[in-house]
Amino acid sequence: MRGRTARYGYRIENGKPVIAEDERAVLEQICAWYRNGISLGNIAEKLNAAGVSYQPGETGWNKARLMRMLEDERYTGADGYPPIWSGETRDALLQCKRQRNTQKQTDRKAGIYCLPVPVVCADCGAKMRRTVNRWQSGGKLPKDYRRDNGKADNTHDRGR
């Protein structure tokens, strides 16, 4: 399947981007939903359920794609694109994003964020993956690292 040749909301005519009105209406609806408190995941579900195509024949909406669109300055007229929404609208969308950020208190310089990637076993050098086992922990979420073969007898404790 061929990918898009222009950003969603635009088509190329004579080598220049012009607004695709049907996609513009979808973008305006996305903005309205997001500003009214609907999550990006729920917006993606609505678009996929309604059969709204992201590119010809594909309804591949997801929250990452939507956030990239909402953050993209080209929709405000940057880089030679005609504006679909104003800079004020984009600022309001980014303000909504900041208010919804549930990880702003996360210290990304401590704990698991300090581990080198990929995590490898100090004894044998095998790649390891992080697992969470709710069933053996009484509802708490211990995080273990296991060698990639996934066998329980190869569980590596991370120093609890």
Topology:
Blueprint: E1 10-13, E2 16-19, H1 21-35, H2 40-49, H3 63-71, H4 87-100, E3 128-132, E4 143-147, E5 155-156
Antiparallel strand pairs: 1-2, 3-4, 4-5
Helix pairs in contact: 2-3
Q: Give the neighbour order of strands across the main sheet.
A: 3-4-5
What share of the residues does DSSP label as strand, in percent?
5-15%
Helix/strand order = EEHHHHEEE
What spatial form do the alpha-carbon principal axes imply? elongated
Structural class: alpha+beta
Number of helices: 4
Distance between the termini: 49 Å
What is the tally of beta strands? 5
Low-confidence stretches: 156-160
The major beta sheet can be summarized as: 3 strands, antiparallel
Helix content: 25-40%
Gyration radius (Cα, Å) is: 22 Å
Mean pLDDT across the residues is 80
